[in-house]
Design a protein that fits this description.
Length: 490
């Protein structure tokens, strides 16, 4: 067991190094740095070859932020850069570059030995990623010339390149390119979804009419779903009253749920649709309060990010305390992601503030567990804590919230909870306090010192009888020879 704490410490040191590397910061690449700026950061000790959290490294982030060709080439020319490194979704740089439609960098990567036969973790090939880019015959031709099989390349759902690309087409004539390569207007995926189904995602009525004119089927798929199931679904999906009315004009039933019991009411609620769309739903006998097969209601869908007016609209036909199979209510969803105004509305409508999740979290646990640092994040937490306290939900002071908060790497959040009276010296299930974790993970000694100033006890040892000083010695980010640790003895 002693070995396990050393493993934790080595992992902490790894994560610390990741957090310090400027090349893992999307904001850095969004500013389109020059070669000189990149070299200056390397001189400071930032490693351009180091893989970052989630499989995102500097070269990949530079590509995804559309940095200049010369900048990307300069990076790829550096010693230690592997163009076939395994990144997010088990993809190499070439797959991501293809999705961006950046042919010059694609050509550069292939010259540098990039593999063109990689299938990612979703079963998608290079050609399938060309389908995610803007329609460009040159990009497709390049992929085909480098081994892509446009007829047989399919993803896990059995969707081919043309089916994947159709929702993004603005000109139906581009289909002629696919047909010239051996694909067919009758192609479908494993569930029998064809060109019309996938085109609905883009909401382009002109394209849909063109497909119908070409004889493309609008019939339900093998699961019994019609094209309404594809409204608001997928990347860049759109929902408009014109689209709904057009689909209905084809004889399709808007009240037909999808294979998971989800109706257009769920889609409209999640999209924050207009009153005009909700009137269409009601006029077509779609129940705005009907749950899907996982017991999610339209109100729950709206509660994630829907505005107050939308929630008021759905409260007329939804039970505020209906709970899905994951133990979540509309109030739980709102606390996780929505505004204080939305949370307050649901409570005033009778939302149960005492609800507990399947994981044993109350609403405070949901709030801290879903926290993401950003603009107004702390203000939102303060407002929601105030609302919950005003509604007589007592904050647990046993330390569990503090340990959740520590994982968010936000000292302001920690300070807020400590000020609320949570036990700063409470241990988690592994027998560690947040001071232990700070000593393991801190980028510098200051966080440890500030926690002690706030009441953290440096005399408490880990389950392995390790002191704070022992943990600091194992933290590679802190050089104890140059650090004053006298505060540990006060």
């Amino acid at each position: 067991m002693k070995k396990s704490i050393l493993v934790i410490l080595s992992l902490c040191a790894w994560f610390t190094s990741q957090a310090q590397n400027v090349f893992h910061d999307r904001g850095f690449w969004a500013k389109k740095p020059t070669i000189a700026m990149i070299e200056a950061e390397i001189a400071k000790g930032n490693d351009i070859t180091e893989m970052g959290p989630g499989g995102w490294d500097g070269p990949l982030l530079a590509i995804m932020a559309d940095n200049d060709y010369d900048v990307i080439k300069h990076i790829l020319d550096k010693p230690g850069i592997d163009v076939n490194v395994n990144t997010h979704h088990s993809q190499n740089y070439l797959i991501w570059t293809t999705m961006k439609g950046n042919l010059p960098v694609m050509e550069l990567l292939v010259k540098k030995g990039s593999r063109t036969d990689i299938i990612n973790s979703h079963g998608q090939s290079l050609l399938m990623h060309a389908a995610m880019a803007k329609p460009d015959k040159a990009v497709y031709d390049f992929c085909i010339a480098n081994g892509g099989d446009i007829v047989n390349d399919k993803d896990e759902q059995g969707r081919n390149v043309m089916l994947s690309a159709v929702s993004g087409l603005t000109d139906i004539s581009f289909l002629d390119y696919f047909l010239s390569k051996g694909l067919s207007l009758d192609d479908t995926d494993k569930d029998g979804n064809g060109l019309f189904h996938y085109a609905v995602q883009g909401g382009n009525i002109s394209l849909l009419k063109g497909l119908v004119a070409k004889g493309v089927s609008v019939k339900p798929n093998k699961l019994g779903e019609n094209a309404f199931a594809f409204v608001g679904r997928g990347r860049g999906a759109r929902m408009s009253i014109e689209l709904l009315e057009y689909l209905k004009s084809l004889g399709l039933d808007p009240a037909l749920p999808n294979a998971q019991g989800r109706t257009l009411a769920h889609t409209a609620a999640q999209a924050g649709a207009s009153e005009e769309i909700f009137k269409f739903l009601e006029d077509n006998n779609i129940d705005l309060g009907k749950s899907d097969d996982n017991d999610n209601t339209p109100l729950m869908a709206a509660a994630h990010r829907g505005n107050v007016e939308l929630l008021k609209r759905l409260l007329e036909s939804n039970s505020v305390n209906f709970v899905n199979r994951d133990g979540e209510s509309a109030l739980v969803n709102a606390v996780a992601l929505n505004s204080p105004e939305a949370v307050n509305l649901l409570i005033e409508a009778g939302g149960d503030v005492g609800i507990m999740s399947k994981e044993g979290d109350d609403l405070y646990g949901v709030l801290i567990g879903s926290y993401r640092s950003g603009r107004n994040s702390i203000d939102r937490v303060k407002a929601l804590i105030s609302i919950l306290e005003n509604n007589r939900l007592q904050m647990p002071l046993d330390g569990s919230l503090l340990h959740k908060a520590f994982k968010k790497d936000d000292e302001e959040l920690l300070s807020l909870l400590i000020e609320k009276g949570i036990d700063i010296n409470a241990k988690d299930n592994d027998g560690n306090t947040i001071l232990h974790y700070a000593a393991m993970q801190a980028k510098d000694i200051a966080l440890v010192e500030r926690l002690i100033e706030k009441g953290a006890d440096p005399e408490i040892k880990t389950e392995f009888d390790e002191s704070i000083l022992d943990l600091l010695k194992a933290n590679e980010a802190i050089n104890l020879e140059e650090t004053n640790t006298d505060f540990l003895n006060k």
